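REVIEWER CHECKLIST
Item 1: Sequence provided? yes
Item 2: Single chain? yes
Item 3: Sequence as submitted:
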Amino acid sequence: MPTQDLTEDIKKRSGWSILMGILTALLGVFLIIYPLATATITTLLFGWVLIFVGIAQFVFALHSQTAGKFFAKALLGILYGITGVALAFFPLAGVAALTALLGTLLLIYAGVATAAAFQLRLVEGWRWFLLDAAVSLLMGILILARWPSSSIWAIGTLVGVSVLMGGIARIVIAGKIRSAVSFESPARRAA
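Item 4: Structure as written out by the authors:
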């Protein structure tokens, strides 16, 4: 009897997980449809997070044991705070700056992934790293070649795709768990 209760509990939870996956995927689609709003909201949130991190860093600086550590932590807190204020209170300019940073990071990542791919040539599947590098390189070039107009779509679309993929992954995993529990025979459960 306890095994059957456990099976029913897993089925029920996987149903909720599938529902949450569907809602998450729908949110991802919504974010993709409105990329500038998504990027602006993301930039605002990121700005406020940096403001609070700057405040925390300054508090940590007050607890430093030496003057050198105090000034280093205080300077870091001030930089976090200034960056956070710039992003939170000037979000459209922040979106443009973050888009340029994203394009640059994608180019750097493409170089690192290419080097990793060639170091792993003897491992089966190493070409996936090379494909990852090529896609990152193309995205970085596309973003930077169209900057600042790429700010309208780049961050918002990427955040939306990430949320959409998270929802799809949740649905697939919960569906696999649900089907694995459903196909388990009573004799096998008793064993």
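Item 5: Key structural point noted by reviewer: Residues 134 and 169 are 24 Å apart (CA to CA).
Item 6: Recommendation: ____
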